[in-house]
Amino acid sequence: MKKLIQTLKNIWSIEELRSKIVYTLLLLLVYRVGSHIVLPGVDPNGLEQLNSKAKEGILGIFDSFAGGAFSSASIFALGIMPYISASIFMQLMSILVPQLQKMQKEGESGRKKINQWTRYLTVIVTIFQASAYVTYLKSPEIAGAAIIPSFTSFFWLSTTIVLTAGTLFVMWLGERITDKGLGNGTSLIIMIGILARFPASVAAEFTAKSGSAGGGLLKFTIEIAILIAIVMGLIILVQGVRKIAINYAKQIVGNRQFGGARQFLPIKVNSAGVMPIIFAQAIMFLPTLLTGFNATKGIAATLSDHGNIWYMVVYSILVIGFTFLYTALIFNPKQIADNLKQNNGFIPGVQPGQPTADYIGQIMDRITLPGAVFLAIVGILPGIAKNLGVSSGFSTFFGGTSLLIMVGVILDTLQQIETHLLMRQYDGLMKGGKIQGRQTVSSSAI
Q1: By CB count within 10 A, which of 107, 160, 244, 371 is most buried?
Q2: Transmembrane stretches, by residue range (predicted)?
Q3: Contact at 8 Å (CB) between 143 and 48?
């Protein structure tokens, strides 16, 4: 405890770090305040049906990432998700399109062009999603009665403009946090939205378990202990790496010697990050669009029930498959082998060139399989927790996208804090070892 207090004092004594933390907290506060401002023309007292419907299926994921703004018809109802969608699309295109690959290698100028295109794409995606959200709100069974009659004639135009401006403002907040604050702004905005539901979910679970039929406080304590164990396992998954020894040939220039040192090439157990879970969830929600056909109602109902055994099996297979697919897209052993060869680096006992690429690819395949299986288990844990009696709201924190994002973002932020401490020769946050964040690709495209 004494060491923790001293570490907090060290953090607060660094002026640059203190200003970054305060700046980040203020911008996050602005975002949370805006998430409670209802859209013009909407009566907040008539949103009961929207609050219940918007917590189911894929809408529940959107509402989770938006911190409840989606279900409360807020000006930030779309949150940062249009920007995330545009970023994921541009990231995949940068891998698949040679022209964008070349632009990425141009350095800062190329990245600025890609970022500018991402912003333009964000505006287009936001306009489409805002239009769909307005149609959703105007349906009588959702929130049609909550729309004030005097706003009905121009509700579509005004709401689309407000939602688009709100998303662009949230995107600007994320960029400001990244530039002048602490951590990745976009990731922190998503994490703060997810964490906003945590206290209420814990309180609801505590109330339910405290009742006569809830199982008592012992069961609640066991649930908290299991949640802590899952978080510890996720930390191992996020930080787990396989180090490959790399030797560099000695070079003598004049009277000075360069190279000759041994370094390590770290290969992450989970290089794909949260992307396989996001892709798998998107695929699993597609059958729900076919609920209007009698022949597909049973399939849609099965694949929309997180606690169904068939849902878990199909979902796990999709997560494992997308993990291998996305890892193959972002990880290029051939390019790594060429870079090592150009810098006079080699793996002991392995010939440079194609044999090195084959060796790195073989190791990558071996460590990706257990990482993919563990990621699939994390994805189905909320359904398992729900079947074991955990309330639906609290069960979402036992795994899945929400918990994986929270653990990864917190580790990234702690890594930056530790860097500031070590630069000024203070002790780090951990007594032994070093906090490792996620890979850049996974961090930027949650």
Answers
A1: 371
A2: 21-39, 75-97, 117-134, 154-174, 181-200, 220-241, 272-289, 309-331, 367-385, 397-414
A3: no
